[in-house]
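tool_call: predict_structure(chain=1)
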Amino acid sequence: MGEQQSKKVICLEGIVGAGKTTQIELLYEEFSPDCYLIPELNEISPMKEVRENLKKRGRISNMTNHDVLRLIRARGEIHQRLLPESSSQLVLMDRGIYTGMVFESGEMDMWEVEQTSKKEGVIVPDLCFLLYCSSTKALERIDERRIRIGKYKHRAFHENAEYIEKTKERYFEIAKKRPVILIETSGSKEEIHKRLMGEIYNARFL
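tool_result:
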């Protein structure tokens, strides 16, 4: 934990289609080379293997408490492995502890997920932004990205209005109890980036 205390961590969280990936890339461009980026963990071991196993068993959308604990431990292991990799004092993080609470809690209470995550070494950011927009806007972005990339013919199971609204409400619940900053992202990427930079400097974070 001493390693994190010597660094400042900014994390971007949010619903799918909120523009989070675009904004983390813009922040990275803004602060490079004096920052380190911890990417979304789905393609990093051991998170990758845990998720692949859940998909193979048809459990990715129907997780047991044991499955949730496996994901928590994987996230904690990766965070504690990656955090010391750079000497940069500023760390940008693409999703983190709140993703586990919102998207990966299964039937477990999300506040229990939070406490377990802390015990397993999952990073708690110093400054966290929660990005959101309407489900209609989010799905427009999801479809545009899917067509542009050309990798997926259809939306994933969680890319629908009902799921997006459900996860948005869970994020709003977190925002009532934790020191996070809500960022509405229906505007242009330039407008959103300007708002994020303003919040970072207003918080006297840098």
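agent: The two ends are 21 Å apart (CA to CA). Proceeding to next step.
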